[in-house]
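hey so u asked for the seq, here:
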Amino acid sequence: MKKIQLTILRAACAVLAAAAIAPAWATVDIQGVPLDETVQVGGQTLVLNGAGFRKRGYFKVDVTGLYLASRATTIDAVEKAQGAKRLELVIQQDISGAQASRYFLTDFEASAQPMEFAQLINEVSLIGNIYSGIRQVKKGDIITMDWIPGKGMAAALNGTPLVPHGQTVPYINNELLCRVMYRMYIGGKTPAELRDNLLGVSYSMRDKPPTGQPSVAAAAPAPAAQASAAKGK
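ran it, structure tokens below
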């Protein structure tokens, strides 16, 4: 009996010890919304590069997290980053699928160069097809947009893959689409504060910055940031 109790006590101590050495920042809070610091995409561990909240008018529409295999502090570096990527949106306001589709088309066209947009007409149509199958996105819903090399881009709503009509898999394997999609959320019409938070050069949108870090981690080189933003338009 004493041997069993000793075994249980040792197990409990091991659990407590593991908790004591666990990272203090397992999640990052943005406006009270927690985002994991690491995620698994395509069998690869990705780290939270940056996070913030997006507004349309006076209303917060989503909390956005950008996950990469390694840190990137410019839009160009995000587009060229190797390995898997993820954009995670935690919806903060009920929105119809039709309205979401309009937002997508407006932002995509503002982020793609004319030649890029022309090359991606079929892919844009597939994404529009996905939106047409969504009646409403509700507050608290989670949308993920993953890029997996060799497979392509895939979106999911609350973990359920969103598959274009007529296709059997959710992937759209077009690297240019991936670059424009990520540029759409970080460049294009993205406000400077949100861009800097997603690029990890500012923590101003976090409820609490990482231990020992100021709200602004480091100022991104203005000329490079402006050049990258201009390139994305």
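The longest helix spans residues 2-21. Residues 11-25, 218-233 have pLDDT under 50 and may be disordered.
lmk if thats what u needed
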